[in-house]
Amino acid sequence: MGQRIHFVVDPQGWCCMALIIFIWLYNTIFIPKVILFPHYEEGNISVVAVLCYYFCSLFCIASLFRASVADPGKLPESPKIPIAELEHWELCNKCNMMRPKRSHHCSRCGHCVRRMDHHCPWINNCVGEDNHWLFLQLCFYTQILSSYTLILDFCHYYYFLPLKKENWDVFAFRHELALLRISAFMGLIILGGISRLFYTQLMGIFTDTTSIEKMSNCCEDISRPRKPWQQTFSEVFGTHWKILWFIPFRQRQPLRVPYHFANHV
């Protein structure tokens, strides 16, 4: 049950993703060049701090690309519905296709998505049942990378000892102040926006409610028994092993495989 590639043709989404990738490249190139490597060479920081920064950067970009190309849960054109399960399906009034309850039609993508949370232009994809876990990882590692970058920017001026060896012929050092101010500004904006989004996503998982259901106030199962938080998170990430919730380099497997997963996931 491998994860299918899903590509959305949307110029607005491409522009949003390009902006995110630019910010990631900016900090991945200039922060090590201006702060990490020079202070490591002079013994102000350890190699662990350098490796941690690159690990956070790697996990952040990996979750971004995987969330953007992963199939969010697009329904097949002719799903096979057992008679006993018909009550759990409904007709979409936009594409006239049968879909499981709690699915939603995305007008930007042009199809229904199982347990769709929202369409995110920053990943140029819907956030649905099959890629929600990757979107959560993206929010998590983006917060860590932004926070790490802001801490390094602060420590470079107010905590670390001044650098003894600086090559002023290099562009990064000649424009160091401007580069780090831009980095700090982008870090604050990204951290503020992502933290709020991450909080709403966590609350949605705790209450087993999607963003669309919250906005429309039409979740007909609002009185259903509340699941333990460990179960709801395990269903989103596809595993009970909590350590695997933080690893984007794996395939998600549904904990329970219902009929409409048979030829899709």
UniProtKB/TrEMBL annotation:
Positions of transmembrane segments: 12-31, 43-65, 138-159, 179-199
UniProt comment concerning the protein's domains: The DHHC domain is required for palmitoyltransferase activity.
Every Palmitoyltransferase DHHC domain range: 89-216
Keyword Acyltransferase: yes
Entry's Gene Ontology BP terms: protein targeting to membrane
Family: Belongs to the DHHC palmitoyltransferase family.
Native source species: Donacobius atricapilla
A Pfam family per the record: DHHC
GO molecular function, one term: protein-cysteine S-palmitoyltransferase activity
Enzyme Commission code(s) on record: 2.3.1.225
Reactions catalysed according to its record: L-cysteinyl-[protein] + hexadecanoyl-CoA = S-hexadecanoyl-L-cysteinyl-[protein] + CoA
Subcellular location: Membrane
Protein name: Palmitoyltransferase
Keyword match Phosphoprotein: no
Keywords carried by this UniProt record: Acyltransferase, Membrane, Transferase, Transmembrane, Transmembrane helix
GO cellular component assignments: endoplasmic reticulum; Golgi apparatus; membrane
Bilayer topology: Multi-pass membrane protein
